[in-house]
Amino acid sequence: MCRGPAVIDVRRHNANFCAEHFVRLCRDQTRKSIDQFAMLDPGDRVLVAVSGGKDSLAVWDILTELGFEADGFYIGLGIGEYSDESRRYAERFAESRGLSLEVDDLLRDHGFDVPNGSRAAKRAPCSACGLSKRHLFDDAARRGGYDAIVTGHNLDDEAAVLMGNTLHWQVDYLGRQMPHLPAANGFPKKVKPLVRLTERDTAAYCLLRGIDYLVDECPMAAGNKHLSYKAALNDIEVDSPGAKHAFYFGFLDRAAERFAVPTTDESGPPVTPCERCQAPSSNGVCAFCRLTERATAAVPIEMGRTRRRAKVAS
Ligand SMILES: [Zn+2]
Ligand SMILES: [Zn+2]
């Protein structure tokens, strides 16, 4: 180990690190995941799903440092001040590094935002949000000819999702919980290079690299089960450092294959272009276009006003 002043202890590695070696550790762990799961090939053009939080900015920074051509894609979800602020962090980072960031906006470009759209479509906000993000990232990757979509999911995220999927034995989800989903059926490859880093690691990485990020969590996610699984795993980790890593990587090493579903172009229902947006779909009109239709059919606030005014007039 080095003689530099320690800035962080990483209990699951049973070691203290100075700033320089910690930054190197984060890059090395990311490189290791990319290699172990054959996530990216040299020369791959990648599109990073950027939220303005620590994980997406850290993965964008690390991939750029590792020599990948990585552009960013940000989606404004219309979640009040949270969305405005998160976009500013994403834009500021891109500017400071001279990186290219495309900004899409649900309300401006698709006619609804997550709070009102999910209500109108009678969907949970996180489900409408996840569906929209997946669709728009896939679409952006196809339009831009990117080889892969990169997300900033870290070990805490993946272990929490695994815990939820295991508690409820969601075998379909377990079959797709790999950090590398190959391209299939017109959908681009999706990879999660930060699966060896925890939230604490990515926060420390950003601090040491001078990356300003939005600390607040999405206000719509409050009360989300995912957060309670994270808290439970953090409690376990206190007494058993490395438990999260063992849980998730043990699953990948010894169990994931048993749940794997084939992702070749021949498997599953036939895929045809969506009648409205041309995205691959197994259902005539894709799920995002159906959500858009329902979410824009009623604009609740405006309708309420009109109705009230009509009553007063009569
Ligand atoms: Zn050191
Ligand atoms: Zn569509």
Describe this structure in words.
The chain is of the alpha/beta class and 314 residues long. Helix content is 53%, strand content 12%. It is built from 14 helices and ten strands. It has helices spanning 19-36, 54-65, 80-97, 106-110, 114-120, 125-144, 155-167, 171-175, 199-209, 225-239, 243-254, 256-259, 287-297, 300-313, and strands at 6-10, 15-18, 45-49, 69-76, 101-105, 148-150, 180-181, 189-191, 272-273, 280-281. The strands form three sheets. A six-stranded mixed beta sheet has the order 5-4-3-6-8-7, sandwiched between helices. It has a two-stranded antiparallel sheet with strand order 1-2. β7 and β8 form a beta hairpin. α5 packs across α6 and α7 (155-167) packs across α10. The longest helix has 20 residues, at 125-144. Bound molecules: zinc ion (2 copies). One zinc ion binds at residues 274, 276-277, 279, 286, 288-289.
List the helices and strands and how they pair.
Layout (H helix, E strand, L loop, with lengths): L5 E5 L4 E4 H18 L8 E5 L4 H12 L3 E8 L3 H18 L3 E5 H5 L3 H7 L4 H20 L3 E3 L4 H13 L3 H5 L4 E2 L7 E3 L7 H11 L15 H15 L3 H12 L1 H4 L12 E2 L6 E2 L5 H11 L2 H14 L1
Parallel strand pairs: 3-4, 3-6, 4-5, 6-8
Antiparallel strand pairs: 1-2, 7-8, 9-10
Helix pairs in contact: 1-9, 2-9, 5-6, 5-13, 7-10, 7-11
The protein binds zinc ion (2 copies).
- Name the average pLDDT: 89
Main β-sheet, in a few words?
Answer: 6 strands, mixed
Instruction: Give the uncertain stretches in residue-range form.
Output: 302-314
- What's the shape? globular
Portion of residues within helices: 40-55%
Please tally the β strands and state the result.
Answer: 10
Spatial extent as radius of gyration: 21 Å
Bound molecules: zinc ion
Structural class: alpha/beta
Helix and strand sequence: EEHEHEHEHHHEHHEEHHHHEEHH
Number of helices: 14
Strand order of the largest sheet: 5-4-3-6-8-7
Beta content comes to 5-15%
**First-to-last CA distance:** 81 Å
